[in-house]
Automatic annotation (TrEMBL):
Gene3D superfamilies: 3.10.20.30, Alpha-helical ferredoxin. Belongs to the succinate dehydrogenase/fumarate reductase iron-sulfur protein family. One of its GO terms (biological process) is respiratory electron transport chain. NCBIfam families: dhsB. It holds the Pfam family Fer2_3. This is Succinate dehydrogenase subunit B.
Length: 220
């Protein structure tokens, strides 16, 4: 099928603001937005965007598709196409725009450091973890640092969702010396955290779920 893409373009050397450029690409419904972007790139190799794994693992292809942050390699064209409408592709919001669909992710990676994103091993840790706890850690550990949750967050200036995912995952880890204290150290009101935990699976391309018991242990 032929699809019209409306792609945001911005060249910092020439443009003062982003503008849209239309491309007509031939793609199958079961191809992805990333496949469509690659077709557009073959028409204009000056078009800049990031991608690497093409299988929702590296997190680099995150863009805004029809107004919603998402992974281009995970979004099927049949889902992105609406009758008679072009598919709009823009850079992630809340990040500094570098060129076309490429944004500066450095502050996003920096924000992770604030939560001490590594395990601080308890001295008395006995080396065992129940299968149930191990299973509950698996999901938040699949964060691919794509930035979609940050781009989809209304309060991204103060709340850095990927850092919260990391901190909440460590708060659940029985090997960690800080454990549930991490929740207090975050200084994010627990109602906000609860809302975040509830909304995250809908925003996150990996559907990451964090169980509410982590918060309960941290605040009682
Ligand atoms: S929590 Fe999900 S949306 Fe946020 S950075 Fe990790 S994988 Fe991406
Ligand atoms: S290209 Fe790696 S997540 Fe899309």
């Amino acid at each position: 099928m032929d699809v019209v893409l409306k792609i945001s373009r911005f060249d910092p050397g020439m443009d003062t603001a982003p503008r849209f450029q239309r491309f007509v690409v031939g793609v199958e419904p079961n191809q992805t937005v990333l496949d469509a972007l690659l077709c557009a790139w073959r028409q204009d190799i000056g078009l800049s965007f990031r991608r690497s794994c093409r299988s929702a693992i590296c997190g680099s292809c995150a863009v805004r598709i029809n107004g919603r942050p998402a992974l281009a390699c995970q979004t099927l064209m049949e889902k992105a196409v609406a009758e008679g409408e072009p598919v709009t592709i823009e850079p992630l919001p809340h990040f500094k725009l570098l060129k076309d669909l490429v944004v500066d992710l450095e502050p996003f990676f920096e924000s992770l450091k604030a939560v001490v994103p590594w395990l601080i091993l308890r001295e008395d840790y006995g080396g065992r973890m129940s299968p149930e706890v191990a299973r509950s850690l698996e999901h938040p550990a699949t964060c691919i640092l794509c930035g979609v949750c940050e781009a989809d967050s209304e309060t991204s200036e103060t709340l850095h969702p990927a850092g919260l995912v990391k901190a909440l995952r460590l708060a659940r880890d029985p090997r960690d010396a800080l454990g549930a204290h991490r929740i207090r150290l975050l200084q994010v009101p627990v109602e906000v955290l609860r809302l975040f935990v509830r909304e995250l699976p809908d925003k996150c391309p990996k559907g990451i779920e964090i169980t509410d018991d982590i918060l309960r242990r941290g605040v009682t």
